[in-house]
Amino acid sequence: MKTFKGRTAVITGAGSGFGLEVSRIAAREGMNLVMADVQQDALDRAVEEIRSLGAQVMGFRLDVAKAAEVESMGEATCARFGAPHLVFNNAGVGAGGLIWEHSLKDWEWVIGVNLMGVAHGVRVFTPMMVEAARSDPSYEGHIVNTASMAGLLNAPNMGVYNVTKHAVVAMSETLYQDLRLVTDQIGASVLCPFFVPTGIHQSQRNRPAEMQESDVRPTKSQLIAQAMSDKAVTSGKVTAAQVGQFVMDAVREGRFYIYSHPKSLASVQTRLEDIMQGRNPTDPFSLKPEIGEGLRAALRVTD
After folding, report:
1. What string of DSSP letters covers the chain?
2. Residue 297 domain-assigned (yes or no)
3. pLDDT per residue over 136-151, tens digit each?
C-alpha cells in the first residue's frame, strides 16, 4: 500500500498505545480515521487530538469481543467513508498465571478480546475491501493484526495470553495466503511486539463487569505474573511511537512480519529447532537462570 492521503484507516485499541500512535501517523499522512476503544475517556481524548491534526474522525466506544458492535462500526464506516484501506485490529488485553488457574471468565474475556476481536475485524472489513478491489483497479488495502512475541514463543505463567496470540499469528498467516488467492491489491501483516511501554499490563481496568470474578482472589502465580508484567512493560526501551512507525513502514513496504525487538527472534529459532528435532522445549530462562530459579522457588509444590 503506497498511498495514504485521502484514504481511510480503521483502528481498534485507538485510545492509547500502538493504536493511538498509528492514528497520529495516519492523520499526519492525510488519512480519514475510524477510531475505536473500550475506554470512553481515553477514546474521547484521542479523537480530539487526532481531529486537531486536521483529520476527519469517527470515534466508536465498543468492545471488540462483541460481534454486533464491530458490525455496527463496519456499517457506519462504509456509509461515511466507503471501504477502508487500512484496518489495524489492535485491541488486546493481558493476563497471566499458571494455565490451569485461569478461570472460565478469564478464558472467555481474553479469547473474546485478543482472538475474537481480531476475527470480527477480519470478517467484517475484509469483504468490503475485497469488493472494493474488484470494482476499482486502483484500490489498495492492508490489514494489520496485533499479536505478540507470545504468539511465536510460549513463556511460562502466561497461558491464556500465549494461546490467543498464537491463534492471531495463525489467523494472520492464513489471511495473507487467502488474500493472495483472490487479489494482489490487499496485503496483510502481523505485529509481534515484545515488551513495550503501553497500558496492556493494566488491562484489568477495562474488564467488563460480566467478566469479573466475584469474591475470587488472584492466585500466587497470577500475582507474580502481574508483577513481572508491570516491570517488563514499564521498563521497555522501544516506545509505542516507534512501533507505530514500524507498522506504517511495513504497510507501505508490503511486509508481513513486524517486530519491535528483532534480537528476540533467537528464542523463536530455538523453539523451531526444538520442533524440528523433536526435542523437549528448551528452558526459556537458560540465558537468565536467576529468573527461572526465582519463579520455581516461588511456585514449586512443597510439603
Report:
1. ----TT-EEEEESTTSHHHHHHHHHHHHTT-EEEEEES-HHHHHHHHHHHHHTT--EEEEE--TT-HHHHHHHHHHHHHHH-S-SEEEE-------B-GGG--HHHHHHHIIIIIIHHHHHHHHHHHHHHHHHHH-TT--EEEEEE--GGGT---TTBHHHHHHHHHHHHHHHHHHHHHHHH-SSEEEEEEE--S-SSSGGGGGGG--GGGPPTT-PPPHHHHHHHHHHHHHHHT-SS-HHHHHHHHHHHHHHT-SEEES-GGGHHHHHHHHHHHHHTPPPPPTTTTSHHHHHHHHHHH----
2. no
3. 999 999 999 999 999 9
Decide if 296 is inside a domain.
Answer: no
pLDDT tens, 188-198? Answer: 999 999 978 66
Tally of domains within the chain: 1
Domain that includes residue 222, residue range: 8-263
**What would the grid cell of residue 122 be?**
477480519
- Please check whether residue 23 is in contact with residue 35, taking contact to mean a CB–CB distance below 8 angstroms: yes
CB atoms near residue 131 (< 10 Å) = 13
Q: Report yes or no on 291 lying in a domain.
A: no
The grid coordinates listed for 7 are: 484514504
Q: Does residue 205 have a pLDDT over 80? A: no
Q: Is 293 exposed, middle or buried, given 0-12, 13-18 or 19+ CB atoms closer than 10 A?
A: exposed
**Residue 183, amino acid:** T
- The CA distances from residue 23 to 183, 185, 189, 229, 233, in Å, are 26, 22, 17, 26, 21
pTM (two decimals): 0.92
Can you give the CATH number for the domain in which 59 is found? Answer: 3.40.50.720
In a domain, 286, yes or no: no
